[in-house]
Specification:
alpha/beta; Nucleotidyltransferase, domain 5; 265 residues
């Protein structure tokens, strides 16, 4: 298990709350008025349908505090992009059955995205924040916002525990987004190179950025570097981490939370 949690929220005014929602996990991050990440907490192996399983989330006073903004990101591969909204397609979209379906327009593009959360997940969010007091978006929408204006071909890899999220952008528009379960470094390499092959990206020259739980000195990064010339761990001067944690943790670990606070208005 990654050591990703810390809390310095008592030292600062609470300002923005970012929530990352996964199939069996609930992560939240708190940012102060300067945009610094001052607190992070992980709730993993959650059964959202089990009241006793979500009680620790519901009883957390930091989640019921007052914030200027609350943004929820659904981290999932079950998203579907189409040119025009068409609810008739919901019956054939994989992964959206038995879910509360959401529709969003991809920023800066004439593309619409369908994604979903379970009724139990949405009930928890509403119990915590109220029906109208938070914004919910998909990861692909968030990525397209963050990389808005980038015209050259781009592949972004985001790594979580046992999952890789892959985003491809070409001519400034989302071209592909998906996620895959992984068990080894070879799995990650395979899905990365297969994506390059399927989308026409050239590992010898096209830019690849990486975020999440990876280090530049790690065996995984060095393996990817052996096949991809222009690979970089994402860096942004707007990503700020509490000074006490800067020697232990990196801002790119919290990439999703960081862009969530930057890109959701």
């Amino acid at each position: 298990m990654y050591q990703r949690d810390f809390d310095f929220s008592e030292e600062n005014k609470l300002y923005k709350l970012s929530v990352v929602l996964m199939a069996d996990s609930f992560f939240y991050a708190i940012f102060d008025t300067k945009g610094m990440l001052i607190s992070h907490h992980s709730h993993t192996f959650i059964r959202f349908s089990d009241e006793s399983s979500v009680n620790t989330i519901k009883l957390n006073p930091l989640l019921t505090a007052k914030y200027d903004s609350i943004s929820v990101i659904v981290l999932s591969g079950d998203t579907h992009q189409i040119d025009m909204p068409d609810d008739k397609l919901l019956n054939i979209f994989a992964g959206l059955q038995l879910k509360n379906v959401k529709l969003e327009k991809i920023p800066g593009q004439n593309i619409y995205n369908y994604f979903g959360v379970t009724p139990h997940q949405e009930s928890l969010l509403n119990d915590l924040f109220g029906n109208e007091n938070y914004k919910i978006r998909s990861f692909v929408s968030l990525l397209s916002t963050y990389f808005l204006g980038t015209e050259e071909p781009l592949l972004h890899l985001h790594l979580e525990d046992g999952v890789i999220y892959i985003y491809v952008q070409k001519v400034g528009k989302v071209y592909l987004y998906n996620s895959f379960q992984t068990k080894s470094m070879n799995d990650i390499l395979f899905f990365t190179l297969a994506t390059c092959n399927a989308t026409g990206l050239d590992p010898a020259k096209d830019k690849v950025t990486v975020s999440g739980w990876i280090e530049k000195e790690s065996a995984l990064f060095k393996q990817l570097q052996g096949y991809i010339s222009e690979i970089h761990i994402i860096s942004d001067v707007l990503f700020m981490l509490h000074p006490t944690m800067q020697s232990k943790l990196k801002t790119h670990y919290y990439f999703v939370h960081n862009i969530n606070t930057l890109c959701v208005s």
